[in-house]
Amino acid sequence: MYAIVEIAGQQFKVAKDQKVYVHRLQGEEGSEVTFDNVLLLDNEGAVTIGAPAIEGAAVTAKILGHLKGDKVIVFKKKRRKGYQKKNGHRQYLSEIQIESIAASGAKKATKAKAAPKKAAKADDLKKIEGAGPKAAEALVSAGLDTFAKVAKADATKLSEILTEASSRLSHIVTTTWPKQAGLAAEGKWDELKELQDRLDGGIEK
Fold it and tell me: The whole model's pTM is what?
């Protein structure tokens, strides 16, 4: 039995006990995740095609670990313009192992697991000086969705996350982001404003 399922925006053909590398997932290592966007099922020759997904079908997997993919060189050049730019990229990945494939009856269980995630509310990271919508989205995708989490992160790590998300974010200076996030997490908005007034290009004067 195998299934074609969408995981983190990509489609995979999977079978039980198969190991797959997918875009970074939010779960911890060793935790189980369920994917209900199953597009096709083949049960010993009996093929079921979704429209677009199969109602009640689900694929359950276990997160084995988080890692980075091989480095990819991104080189841009405009001839006769004197412009060229070289960037490296390593995609954040998760290794998962398929535990089971359910043809039906999994829809309710999937919704029950997803409910706690909807209850959680992320902070408005755009209140950090220098963190625009794209940068804030990159931090949330990396699991840093609150001021408290950003405050505990290293500035170098934050810069790596932005660079991995897009080469257009690689120039952003994150030196003061943990300090800003710490003040925001503690509700010290006046002190945060004073700090941001002293910033010049993300660097404290």
Answer: 0.49
